Prior knowledge:
With 402 residues, this protein is of the alpha+beta class. It has helices at 2-17, 35-48, 122-131, 226-240, 248-252, 322-329; strands at residues 65-66, 72-73, 84-92, 95-104, 107-116, 135-142, 144-145, 152-157, 164-171, 181-187, 203-204, 213-214, 257-259, 264-265, 283-290, 295-303, 306-315, 333-339, 346-354, 360-368, 375-381, 394-395.
Amino acid sequence: MWRVMTRTVRALLVALALPTLLSEARAETPTPAPSSATAALGRTVRQLCCGMIDWSGLDKVKSVRWIGAGPTLLDKPTADGSAMARGGRFELAGAPAELFAAGARSGVAAYYMRTPAMNLDESGILAMLRSTGLKVELARCPVSRGGMRERLWFRVSAPKGEPAIFYAGPQNGSPQTGVPGDIYALHLTPDLPLLPPQEVARFTEQCGESGRGAAPAAARSAPSQGYEAVAGLLADWLALGAAGPAPYAALEKQAAVKWRPNVFTRTSPGINTESAWDEKGTHFLNGELKTATTAMNAAAFGDARGATRFYLKDGANLPRGAVLAELRKRGFTLTTLRCGQPYTEESTDWWRITSPSGQSAVLARTVMLGTGQRQEDYALRLDNVLPPIRKGETDASVCRAL
Length: 402
């Protein structure tokens, strides 16, 4: 019974959380939603917004009838990283609606709601949220706006509380009834959720003023895909280290990474382990690489002269082999050095990467499958040091085909 319940909750969360599983609405003539239902939805959103709360705080949200005494531990994390969830129900002018709180043991990170079709357009959603006292601005919209009920993301904030992201979109039919409805989500973070790679070209963050019409011409070009950004950053790091360690001042000027201020120093050079991620060095930078599809932690380690080892961790929405294919497209040569264990939840492969100008380094990629979503880590070693071979790894002479 417990396994059945966790699978059910997780399936519902996935259906609510992933844009690719939400059907586009059929073209229809919107009819005004009942003002009482709109107001009830707005009040519920206002009670949930803004800032992460612990699970016991859910019981203070009086408009929701929560199921059970606490959250359910899911058998596998959802695509948004949630490991725990708690379901509930609320009413919109007598019509039933579902709500799921999702997050980690530390607290709730997002809420997902499924309601009857309310036919709220952009202006209706803005009016509903603003009537509750929230400050609201459109944060992501379709490149071509108008003509159908649209999927929209709003950045919202309360006088006291952290900024959050509110999503609104149509659903042709709910899994239970097949009746058209709406999907709403409240992400308790100021950062927009990542888009699947196939949807990047359809949406823009340059929405302009509320209203109809196409987005500005500059917004019509698709944002950089995650795999393109990763390949570009690896290429830049290799170029910066052509004459020796890459200077930290040059790294901090890279637009692709939002580096945290100042170079960190430590008296110990760190532990030189046998893995790709030994983080060895007395000086280092930490930052983040972020595109519309992929967000990764970035780090650069070295000595006082500059960095010689670089890391990108926890990359999602990177199509299989896309980063390597992009590097080859840019003229880089990849020579296999070592392969990890196939058919495991985590495996590391190693290459010698050589630029068109002849600059070379050691490149490692770790693929992880254990979180419910494929993720990739990358390491670039300008010092060309390959660690000792580990159990389960094979050298280039017997590597599997890539």
